[in-house]
Amino acid sequence: MAGGKSARLDYAQTFSIGFGMLAVASAWAMVNAFVPLKLKELALPTVAVGIVMGIDNLCGFTIQPLCGLLSDRVRTRWGRRIPFALFAIPPAALCLMLISMAPDAPLTIAAVIAYAVLMATCRAPIVALMPDVTASPLRTRANGVINFMGSIGNVLALGGGSLLYRRFGMSVAFAAGSLIMVAALAALASLVREPAAHRTRPGERARLPFVSWRELRASVMPRLDLDAEARRSFMLIVAVLFLYTMGGNAIETYFTLYAVHDLGLDPATAGGDLVWFAAGGLLFAIPAGIVGGRMGRRNTLGLGLSVAICMLTPMPWIGEASLIPCLAFVFGAVYMLVFVNALPWIAELGGDEHVGAMTAYYYLATCAGAAISPTLFGLIQQSTGEYRWMFLYAAAGFAMALACMPFITRGEADGARAPLPSLPRPLAVKPAAKAAVAGL
């Protein structure tokens, strides 16, 4: 495919790049839905479950930034990003199957760690593929397409995985997830051709650069040449990413345990209910990018967070099994307003020269929130004995993120300043009102 940046979005190329996100999203959807249930069955306390489920996010502090930095410098005949996916996804698919078949807690945890390390190796390079070939004003719309493909992966994994889990058990469900990962990788490698500048010429040797410890530290927190206003916006955007990820990750990690232990659902039904969240995201991923392009990224995120707060706040008191599918669908659509616009928002501050650096900060912020949150809420759950308080916990994280946003003036397309109308404020919600529930 053409590698140059066009004034119009190349939908065929963007959908093809989305196969990488499909592979990543489908695998993590199954892990987040069913591995906490297995760990509880193996008699691990909730805090320990949170620690294990946060391991992949600890990799975000080291492995993801390192691979993002390496992928900026690597040159091979396949390009600079795709080789990381070719290296990591096949063995990660094997680890996914091992997670389901492991007979005890130590082997299960070891398989989760290996899987997390491998997936961290390829995630930042896959995400950086889109900005490599997409002009700045089109990145929000392109990210909507990428997340649309990720939502397809979620639907395939959660819908098909829940059916297979109910009928054949966890091993068959995870084997199917592994096949989805490998098939998506094959589509990515065969359909996407990176720009010529990122590929070696025939007969030229691949360039695999060495990275020193100093460079690794710099890749985790790259130095940025920003003016005072841009630096303030950058720090606040990082805070927003951290806070909303902390809130959302608690639901992502503990939703199936909430559904099983608080609502009395069986594990397959609990995982199946998450399909409605994925379906909402699937249908609204592309429109969310269009809305972000018209309203501005900051205001679109503010709208999504405001609606999410209103939906989550009453859930501890009104949560019922019969409401979950409908409310999860609505929340999945709303959350796309946040998720689709977040990466283009921070990437814009770095310009084309520092997409990898801004991607590193994006993962630093989101992985920090996601690494801390499962353990923190695990402590809350163990003290209260109930999972339903995760909704108030998430709403609090979203509210703190929302409070930072009026002071952010950079991050719109082509460096344009965000307009400064008042952001929508969370509405007062009565405990008796109906709301939505889901996890990222």
From TrEMBL:
Keyword flag Membrane: yes
Gene Ontology molecular function, alphabetical: transmembrane transporter activity
Main location, first listed in the record: membrane
Xref: PROSITE patterns: MFS (PS50850)
Membrane topology value: Multi-pass membrane protein
Ranges of residues in domain Major facilitator superfamily (MFS) profile: 13-413
Domain of life: Bacteria
Entry keywords, A to Z: Membrane, Transmembrane, Transmembrane helix
GO cellular component terms given for this protein: plasma membrane
Annotated signal peptide: none
SUPFAM superfamilies: MFS general substrate transporter
Native source organism of the sequence: Bifidobacterium ramosum
Listed InterPro entries: MFS, MFS_dom, MFS_trans_sf
Keyword Cell inner membrane: no
Stated name of the protein: MFS transporter
Cellular localisation: Cell membrane
Transmembrane intervals: 12-35, 47-70, 82-102, 108-130, 142-165, 171-192, 233-255, 275-293, 324-347, 359-381, 387-408
